[in-house]
Design a protein that fits this description.
By secondary structure, the chain is an alpha+beta fold. It contains eight helices and 18 strands. The strands form five sheets. Strands 9-8-12-11-10 form a five-stranded antiparallel sheet, with no helix packed on it. Strand 4 and strand 5 form a beta hairpin. Helix 1 runs antiparallel to helix 2, helix 2 runs antiparallel to helix 6 and helix 3 packs antiparallel against helix 4. It is flat and about 90 Å long. The two termini are 66 Å apart.
Amino acid sequence: MLFIIFVILLMTFFGIDNSFDFSILYGIALTGIIIAGLAHIVTLTTAVADDAKRKNLGARIIWTILTFLFGFPAGVFYSLFTFKTGKYEERKDNRKNIILVIISIALMLAFAIGTTSFMRIRTNYEYTHFPKFMTTYKNSDGEDVIYDRIGIAYTREEYESFKYYDRDGKAYTPVFDYDVFSNVPEIYGVEDAQSNKEYTEFDMYDFLIDRDGYLLIVPDNEFEYSSLGVVYNSEQNICYDISSVDWTPDGEMIFANGEDLSKITYQDIIAQEEQDSITLRDNDITDFFGFFERSDWEYMPYHCTKNFWAEYFDGSSVSGLKSAELIDITEQGTAYNDESKYYVIANAKCKSSNKSSQYKTLKLKVVFNYDEDYSEWKASEITVLQ
């Protein structure tokens, strides 16, 4: 059962790649294989359980569980260890269990053959069809093809010879990197079609397509990626990731995600960067203040440790207080209308700086400032509200 479940999970999660348009027949075939595997386990377990019960075995439950978990190997061991148990006449008349075993073996073979065939057909399909996020066309033979910038058509088998062109007229072919569980071609680099020199991500290069459809091989980090789906640099040049661009038969550049990225301006990118920064800050704030739900300040990162209290309860920041321990948070918000500063109002158990060992509960306002240069929060002040 464990092996069957493992194979079923493998086929379910990796057998049908969402990047491809598989027909409904693939789903039906996968369902049939799963049913055959599960039925094999059920029939074999039933046969072993009935036989063990007929032979009145003390370990009947154990053999049943082992068969259910480990399937056919456990059934074979059961047969070897219990073959001589019981009378021959009883074994000879046990036709029901014999039929169940035969059915179970047939189902096991169907599962094995079906799994092998399914994976082979799937692999062949993925090596002969483009992923559905790529824009394809039909040639005269009815095959899916894609086009390069100058209108040359390529089938899936010819994809490794696909050409990208730079402004100097040089042609480059893609270098692919395939995932372990998928045959989706991911471009890992390009190769000069004349010199066969490779440029890969490992060599710290990025591969971009400019607005005129020409290939750019640029050093890594020379361009920044925007959440709008384009890349740009400080000179306001906008380009596209090599995997996001397709071409029509007429050489018109289009985009794999269906969105017209050519309409995105540098001002759009800057506005989106500002929005992303606000979103990131808000998420950071939410995560940061989530720590205040703990009952001890020492769980807080950065300055919310004992050193934090030593710094702000030294008789100067908050006169007369020596220490404080968080009890709970009653409020949190923005301080001084400054979006970079946030505060919490908390009930804290505070100790006086004099010789008294008694504690009293005070309400404190603790203001924090987010230091973008160091990417951390810092407490800027503490005020006793009561």
